[in-house]
Amino acid sequence: MPDDTQDVISGGHLVAKALKAEGVDRIYTLCGGHIIDIYDGCVDEGIEVVDARHEQVAAHAADRYARITGKPGCAVVTAGPGTTDAVTGVANAFRAESPMLLIGGQGAHTQHKMGSLQDLPHVDMLTPITKFAARPCRTRRGRRTWCRWRSASATTGRPAPPSWRSRATCWTRR
Q: In whole angstroms, how far apart are CA 2 and each of 5, 8, 10, 147?
């Protein structure tokens, strides 16, 4: 009997592949159940996973990394309080125009706004302190999300990372 699961790729691995394609070589994080699969993808893609003791530290570290290297800084935190704990670091990155990305976990799409574990309006909270905030719920929307993040990051007033300069437009399949 053939094994059909060989062709299946997890969402966490897709996120890691997208991060690698955008030049992210390190993520700052505090382990959480909603984001655990992203770690497996990062390990497979050769992205360094730096564990912090608090989500706020992860966000500030991603901002610092972006300011020092000019490369995108990335914090990956779990849903609910994990994301809200990162808000101060995100606000600092926004004011400094750092190319920073925060990936916050979320409960199952089918349980969104139904009181699932750590279900909070992350996008609504982050919209005022970011150039772009979204909650992709399908692969094709995720691809659009990366394009918009790239566009927002490239307009920080600082030169865009080399991987973004070559992509004037972003292709998405409808």
A: 9, 13, 19, 36
Instruction: Report d(CA 38, CA 116) in Å as an integer.
Output: 20
Long-range contacts of 22-25 (CB under 8 A, 24+ apart): 22/72, 22/146, 22/149, 22/150, 22/161, 22/163, 22/164, 23/71, 23/72, 23/161, 23/162, 23/163, 23/164, 24/71, 24/72, 24/74, 24/101, 25/71
DSSP 8-class letter at 71? S
Per-residue pLDDT of the chain (174 residues; tens, 9 = 90+): 455 556 677 888 888 998 998 889 999 999 887 788 899 999 999 999 999 999 999 999 999 999 999 888 999 998 888 888 999 999 999 999 888 999 987 655 565 565 555 666 677 787 777 887 777 665 555 455 555 555 555 555 554 444 433 333 333 332
